[in-house]
């Protein structure tokens, strides 16, 4: 099955979200398995978390899997504080996420 990888960089907050075409992002992941690589994401606020939730919901609504990987301490802490850490369990790195997705697709 088709899978994509989305890499996020820097800060994902309200100010940075103004420059993103959220509809385009959601359309690009609407019908495929997805790995969201958070390795280079240094900070996320509530607006950024809403985007992550929209991405996960969009992927899941088409019957596909959305995995996250490489979350920094700051991002992991934000997920924990908002109690979204169970909704976005982060695998260690992109290769572990690829392997996990392969296992899901092949099972």
Structure characterization notes:
With 107 residues, the protein is α/β, with parallel strands linked by helices. The chain is built from five helices and four strands, in the order βααβαβαβα. Helix content is 46%, strand content 26%. It has a four-stranded parallel sheet with strand order 1-2-3-4, with helices on both faces. β2 (33-44), α3 and β3 (66-69) form a beta-alpha-beta unit. It is globular, with a radius of gyration of 13 Å. The two termini are 12 Å apart. The model has no long low-confidence stretch (mean pLDDT 93).
What are the SSEs and their pairings?
Elements: E1 3-12, H1 14-17, H2 22-28, E2 33-44, H3 46-61, E3 66-69, H4 73-81, E4 90-91, H5 94-106
Parallel strand pairs: 1-2, 2-3, 3-4
Helix pairs in contact: 2-3
Question: What strand line-up does the widest sheet have?
Answer: 1-2-3-4
Q: Low-confidence spans: pLDDT under 50, at least 5 residues?
A: none
- Approximate strand percentage: 25-35%
- Give the structural class: alpha/beta
Distance between the termini: 12 Å
**For the CA atoms, what is the radius of gyration?**
13 Å
Order of H and E elements: EHHEHEHEH
| Quaternary structure state of the chains depicted | single chain
- Mean pLDDT over the full residue set: 93
Main sheet, how many strands, which sense, barrel? 4 strands, parallel
Number of helices: 5
Question: What is the β-strand count?
Answer: 4
